[in-house]
Each structure stands twice: as structure tokens, then as C-alpha cells.
Amino acid sequence: MSQQPSGWYDDPSQPDMLRYWDGVSWTNHTAPKKSPTASQSTIGLPQQARSDQASADRTGAAAPTPTTPVPQGSGWQSQSQTPQYYQQAPANAQWMYNIRTTADGIPLASWGRRLGAWFIDGIIISLVGGAVSWAATPRMGQLFSEMMTAAEANDSARLTAIQGELTGPALQFSFILWLLTTAYCLVFWTTTAQTPGKMALGISVRRAAEPGPLPLGVAVLRRLVPLAGQFVPFLSLLDGLWPLWDDKRQALHDKVAGTQVVQGKQPRKQA
């Protein structure tokens, strides 16, 4: 039973509706299928079919008729048909007021899901990255042990001296932890487009212009704002809260990299 990429497909329970498939299961997001622009639609079509349609629109030629796998129940069953999708839902379609989407119609992840994914990833990074960083900076452990001994002996002079000595190891610890966090993000963003936190919450990151895992250059750009947040007060907080009022639900690091966080999985890159 194969998995299909997330997108808008014919609703198996309502022939005149489309329903959003998040890559794992059907969601509650539906939209009317009928529209004046149905013949020019790309919503729910595979990436190749979207490219064919775009080429046909530019040249005036007829686009090839796609054969689309249609989700059935919890899995997929391949069926030959001519699906009628639309470019934009009627103005009175309720889902347009409740769901913000990418330019190609994929629902954006809510701020709450993004926060939940960040929390899960934070726990993983704190446990694994913290342990590795601590092991890589043995001087940090020695100084903390000496600090505890000095505190028990009420040796304030030694405590003051240790605090000064901690600066170097603390910076080293922070740098190693940041490198591990960056590697964690880059590996998942460029392969599955989902960190473990995003996997757990059913969301993924993609370029705003097209689906799929992030290219390495885009992934690196996405880490620049978190890096700057280490040195600029309140930048990290502002970055995290920005999707709450942004019309594209982008954080500042999404703005820099041109990315968006969406519901569902991303299609894998073709070999």
C-alpha cells in the first residue's frame, strides 16, 4: 500500500468535493470541486502534471490528461480518471476563511503545531546535544565540581575565581551545542523535510515556491536568524512569535530563506 504526497484529491465520500490528504490520512479540510477555472487547475495534481499544465498555459496547447492515484480509506488505490480540480475555491467557501495555504493550495501549519514540534525537538537536542557537548568540554565539569566544593566550604574567593574561569568552557559548550543543533536541522530539512518534532505533529518545511525537502543552501539560510538570536536580545523571541500575525505564517527565519511550514509530508526527491 503506497503513500502519496500531501495535497488536494477527490473526496472518496463526496464526489462533488475535494478533500486534503496530509500524506498519512484524510483531514477535515474540504472544498467544492466545481469552479469556472476547473480546466486550469493544478491543485491536487502530481508535480509533473502541474508542470505540464503550466507549460500548456504558456503555449496555449492542451495539457496531457493525468492518471492520478486516488486515496481510498487509509491507503491508496490506483484509478484511471480525469480529475477536475480548480485553481481557486468560490468566495463563499468556508475553508478559505479558516485555512491559510501556500500559493499552490497546501494548508499551512498552525503556530500551535510549530510550537509543539519545537518543544519536542528542544527536548531531544537538550538531552542528546547537551550530553555530547558536556562530554566534549571536560573542563566545564571539573569547574562545576570545584564550585560545589567551594560553596560547601563557604570559600567566596574561590567561587569568584571559578566564575571567571567558567567563561571560556561555557562559550565552548554553547558553540558545540549550536553546531549539533544546526547539523540536526540541516540533516532532517534536506532529507525528509521533517525533524522528529515535525514528524510527530504531522507538519513539514518546504520552499514557498515549490514542494520537496530543502536544498542545502536554503537550509543554511534558515539557520541564520537563530544564529543572530544568540547575540541580539529578544530576536529569538520575536522570530518564534512572528507567525502569529504574519499573513503567510512565516517566522523571520522563513522570511530569510523563503520557506513555509505546511501540513503533511513532502514528496521525496526523484533519484
From TrEMBL:
Start and end residues of each stretch annotated as Disordered: 26-84
InterPro entries, per database record: DUF2510, Pra-immunoreactive, RDD
Membrane-topology annotation of the record: Multi-pass membrane protein
Location in or out of the cell: Cell membrane
Record field: compositional bias (Polar residues): 26-56
Residues that span the membrane, as ranges: 115-136, 170-189
Pfam families for the chain: DUF2510, RDD
Keywords tagged on the record: Cell membrane, Membrane, Transmembrane, Transmembrane helix
UniProt KW Metal-binding keyword: no
Residue ranges occupied by any DUF2510 domain in the UniProt entry: 7-38
Domain RDD: 108-258
Name of the protein: RDD family protein
Organism phylogeny: Bacteria, Bacillati, Actinomycetota, Actinomycetes, Micrococcales
